[in-house]
Amino acid sequence: MSCSCTHEQAKLQENILKKINNHPCYSQNAHQHYARIHVAIAPACNIQCNYCNRKYDCSNESRPGVTSCRLTPQEAVKKVLYVGGSVKQLSVVGIAGPGDALANPKQTFETFALLQKYAPDIKLCLSTNGLNIEKYIDEILKYNIEHITVTLNSVDESGKMGAKIYPWVYYEGKRYKGEEAARVLLRQQLRGIELLVKNDILVKVNSVLIPDVNEEELLRVSKKVKEMGVFIFNIMPLISKPEHGTRFGLDGVKSADHRLFMKVQEACETGVKLMRHCRQCRADAVGLLGEDRSDEFFKKEFADKSFEELQAHYNINKRRETHEKIEKWRDVLRAANERALRAEAQKYELSSTGETKLIAVTSASNGLINDHFGSAKEFLVYEAGDKAIKFIMSRRVETSYCKGPAGCGTYVIDEIKKVLSDCDILLTQKIGECPRKELDSIKIICDEDYANEPIEISVLKAVRKHFSFEKLQAC
Questions:
Q1: CATH number for position 30
Q2: Span 334-349, pLDDT tens digits
Q3: What is the pTM of this model?
Q4: CB of 195 within 8 A of CB of 133?
Q5: Between 20 and 30 A from 341 (CA), which of 29, 85, 287, 454?
């Protein structure tokens, strides 16, 4: 009996690993190797969120709900074929807005039907507020959509918490407001998640961390989603500025900073797997997580081409060869990094003393320390001790230290210093003397010795090199 159960569990685990292996959102290990594309075919939404503004023609903002161009299902699939032929590490296509995928069912499922026909090798995803999952579960299963993200910001059954976040919900021909709206939404979200899990669909739950609103509530959310069998839980810090035009932004609700974010992440680390590498992507994002190449692919370049012409450009065989090469490289990285990374470890599993350090890394891709400090707009942050390390988060800055030829001689490091203020070491491919001195002023050690080396093992080596972890002696 036990052997049979063990065998079934092993098969289940193998099936899950296969589903997430090249999915950059569901696998932290995949996100520096495989790319994703979001196609903006879903303009309508059936709820209003105080943190959301579905903005068009906006190329200078990187956050959910923003897109530069809305597409028809046919245009969306043509774009996937066009991008997939050029960016052969593309592995996932998602419908994430700018509204809600299931509030636009005709466009959503027409897109997935065409993708199954013309790009059968690519994984299909959608993001939703959860209101209509129950209504469209049969279509979700029909199109083999194996990964679904549900945004769940509260599990307060009274609706008092939800009423602070959602002004209204439109469901089954009726508009609900206030606490009643929140109760209707929560009921449908939980029913939907339960159905997805029951049908072996991997569920990622997104929760927006809203300062002074739901930061304590998210601990209850994390416990609930663990209980329900959700695959991964993603806490997204609120991005809020008046110019974004959101209700929270206009009312002066501040963005969640990285200190609050880390505090809430640590509190929610109660057995549910946390997604720590989210980049809060645009509704038309293209490329690796942490980069956005959406402005490289214009509608005029693919809209008038035939599906057959674009399918030849997509070239499944060439894409398969690229993915095989990526997997060989990932095997090399796994061997190099040994057992350095412990994804959900506690402090005493990382350090012989319980003391840990924060290490920031600049990386362009491929799991290597291969980005110059001057060009970096993102820093990967790890918690490290003398035993092992774990990935904590990605921190972005609006402008890199070096702005290229156009901005030569103009260097701004204040934002970077603020973002890295609690870090102990920076591992980078290259850094100049001036920024090195600036970071030295806030006691950050800059180290170039691990340039072009695998990230995880380098972080472990660096923390051992620069810090001593002496075991506590028993009295």
A1: 3.20.20.70
A2: 888 877 877 677 777 8
A3: 0.86
A4: yes
A5: 287
